[in-house]
Write a structure and sequence with these properties.
Blueprint (H helix, E strand, L loop, with lengths): L5 E7 L2 E6 L10 E10 L3 H7 L29 E8 L11 E4 L6 E4 L5 E2 L6 H4 L2 H14 L6 E5 L3 H10 L6 E5 L3 H10 L3 E3 L6 H9 L3 E6 L4 H9 L1 E9 L16 H4 L2 E4 L15 H15 L5 E6 L3 H10 L6 E5 L1
Parallel strand pairs: 8-9, 8-11, 9-10, 11-12, 12-13, 14-15
Antiparallel strand pairs: 1-2, 3-4, 3-6, 3-15, 4-5, 5-7
């Protein structure tokens, strides 16, 4: 079989190209994977698509395939499912034929060490498996925030990370769960998964509406919208001694906060959460491997592929990014098929 497939490159702001990659053969200790599908991250990947990323850091120092510098041209992507089609020297041939998940950029073929791959359980379709990174992020956010019995919780942002976070919070014995997003399709999905209300943060009465829907100020607020202005709103609806869990990565977008008013006396805690590590207070019992076991179970029960609203053949990937950039009210999750 030919392994000279296509690979996606970000070449300039709002420019992506499919480039012919040279034939790939697995080296010693590697396997060759043929991609079945990959998910576009509409938050992080749009920062690279739009040129809104800091250029003084690695793409992702925790993922070997993304350890290069943040500068054009670059490859990016981290949610890919495929099937092992060849094992290199020194690799158990039992890997051949396995479906695997990989933190890899969008491309038709790639070679990787088996230890960097995750065997997809037989009972989980590939279209659900590509949600693994975002599900792990949602699980990490909820674990870091540690919601308490009877708390009033608000979630700003109902993109795929926000929806997954809200879905996990809906399983907790909260008093009220209120979510916010600009787009009706996401607000509808949020209510369907168990939010008591889902509101438009652009409404002139948004803050009052959140407090009314919660029955008071929030004890715990999540900011996962990727919009810097949402952090100010999240702080504003959080009550005395409450927590604001910040899961967004704003890239190079400036964040301006109004901390000169009630915030100074509010004892509100602003907490950052990032999925590459385990909270030190949990790391004695939890490892990344244990959290991935949990994530597979969550994927089994939530089956998030029902949030795939648009599917594009890989050859039409530029159209997929243009849709996310120009018509953000339409998609929830966009999938590329190979």
């Amino acid at each position: 079989m030919s392994t000279a497939g296509l690979a996606l490159w970000f070449t300039a702001p709002r420019c992506v190209e499919l480039r012919q990659a040279p034939p790939i053969a697995p080296l010693a200790g590697q396997v060759l994977v043929q991609t079945e599908c990959s998910a576009i991250s509409p938050g992080t990947e749009l920062l690279f698509y739009r040129g809104q990323f800091p250029q003084d850091m690695a793409l992702d120092a925790n993922i070997q395939a993304l350890s290069g510098p943040s500068q054009y041209p670059l490859q990016y992507g981290y949610s890919l499912a495929g099937r092992v089609c060849e094992a290199g020297p020194g690799v158990d041939p039992g890997w051949v034929g396995r479906r695997v998940f990989a933190f890899q950029p969008h491309q038709q073929f790639f070679a990787a060490a088996p230890e960097s791959l995750f065997a997809i359980p037989d009972d989980i379709p590939s279209v659900d498996a590509v949600f693994l990174p975002n599900m792990e992020t949602a699980a990490s956010l909820v674990m870091d925030a540690a919601p308490l019995l009877g708390e009033r919780v608000a979630v700003f942002g109902q993109g795929i990370v926000g929806l997954l976070t809200a879905a996990l919070l809906a399983r907790c014995p909260l008093q009220r769960l209120v979510t916010l997003d600009r787009y009706p399709v996401r607000r509808t999905a949020s209510c369907q998964l168990g939010a008591h209300a889902s509101l438009d943060p652009a409404s002139p009465t948004a803050l009052a509406d959140v407090r009314q829907a919660l029955g008071g100020e929030a004890d715990l607020t999540f900011e996962v919208s990727g919009a810097p202005q949402a952090l100010d709103q999240a702080i504003a609806v959080t009550g005395f001694g409450g927590r604001v869990m910040i899961g967004s990565w704003y890239g190079s977008k400036p964040v301006s906060l109004n901390l000169g008013g009630e915030f100074h006396r509010s004892r509100i805690r602003l907490l950052s959460s990032q999925v590459s590590t385990i909270d030190p207070s949990l790391s004695g019992r939890w490892s990344k491997a244990r959290r991935f076991e949990l994530v597979w179970d969550l994927l089994r029960s939530l089956r998030p592929s029902h949030w795939v609203t648009h599917t594009f053949p890989f050859e039409n990937a530029p159209q997929a990014y243009a849709l996310l950039d120009k018509q953000p009210a339409e998609p929830i999750q966009v999938l590329l098929t190979y």
